[in-house]
């Protein structure tokens, strides 16, 4: 730990040490020397909760006592069922950062400084009592001079400095812990803290949240059943976020929803549909669909604010409720490749194919060189047996995600951050929706989206893109090959080529080349096959429209090229097989 930093943050270190002690972790910290040179506070036995609370509870209380940075750390850790035992995970999921609001005088001061004008000229009405107060910011309602009802999120004064100090301390603690504790380095807690730093610092910039909201809104461009509040950019800064006020009922208020005449099943379906649309289709997703962030609004013909409403006139009225999503501080991204792997994984699990599951996780590039494939296969087999003949609609998503993640953890399969967020999103979603309607199964809604994604991937245009992508990957790998080989030859010349080092290296390159070329030729075969099929279909319709060919001679050329390509691919595949 850097001494200067420690001295600067002495007060905070003492708070942390006291929180450790009060929650029964003092001994561990002291003995491991994590907070060496910090005067350790004496906590009377009756003030410690170590005998009255479970470990999970104490961890939750410890984090809650230390405020926003630690609460967020716990919330991020709660997205890691691969790392954290279920009992502790359940406690972390309860973490709330609701705190008393800060005074209106501070709100006014901050708004006027940030927006550069007196409050009365900015708003027609500004409600002094916030509708929600969290540790980073609080939300007020207001009305613009133009009449719109808006919600204004205002950042707590001085919060950035507090978070930055805590992050520095956490980085020091994580470094010390990894140095001394095997489990800490196994958990990769430094990575966890780095991950936390990135997402927490992003949450302190409300303009990023505004941009996330707009990106998700664009994904629902054609869906009038999902509303994302429009952002008022002229009233938004890094510390102020102004958006449409969504007037509805939180999805957590089951009784109120039922009493207001909503059908709970229909709400559950709409919310699951909205989430899967982001996961499988858009690829950019809201990763924190907890009840406070999902609200139900009465069916209405038009989306307010966004101006991107689909025309509804002339259609029979649609009674599905409208789902409003809020709070875009935590988002995940799935590249087209990841979406595809995810769909393949779901399909392989559904087909009970162990090889398919392993292939899918292999293709994600997740299996480390260290993994014991034999054991991994056996565990996936066990999972397969567990889910054997369980109807897809009865599978508990959270259990399946947990099972998969814990196998992944045991085999050191590295899950990318966005996959973790995907898992967390699914877990939160299932929790929220089953408490709304215990009979509802989330996967039943997932299936059509997965199929749609796979169908989309089989379209000739997509196949062409995929083939082009692999070709680029091929080219990049070939490009990097000479330098790698040069390196290997240099080592050989110097007689410093340990066999165990080079063989896996070359092997890895060859395997990758093999894989890419396999996929490349497969994609080209599919592509040319699709073009050929399209040619045949259009060709068969030419009988009815004989002038098409004369009008589009390029079609004829296209078919001939596609046919030749296809033939060439088949012949070369047979040839390479013979060799
Ligand atoms: N546009 C809005 N329309 C209606 N209510 C809103 C709106 N924005 C925020 N709220 C209310 O304020 C609450 C807190 O907002 P939000 O979740 O964005 O803040 P946060 O500081 O990120 O809180 P948390 O840490 O709980 O995620 C929401 O749960 C919701 O009840």
Automatic annotation (TrEMBL):
Ranges of residues in domain ABC1 atypical kinase-like: 94-359
Residue ranges crossing the lipid bilayer per the database entry: 520-542, 554-574
Keywords, sorted A to Z: Membrane, Transmembrane, Transmembrane helix
SUPFAM superfamilies hit by this protein: Protein kinase-like (PK-like) (SSF56112)
Family, per entry: Belongs to the protein kinase superfamily. ADCK protein kinase family.
Name of the protein this chain belongs to: ABC transporter
Annotated source species: Paenibacillus beijingensis
Source lineage: Bacteria, Bacillati, Bacillota, Bacilli, Bacillales
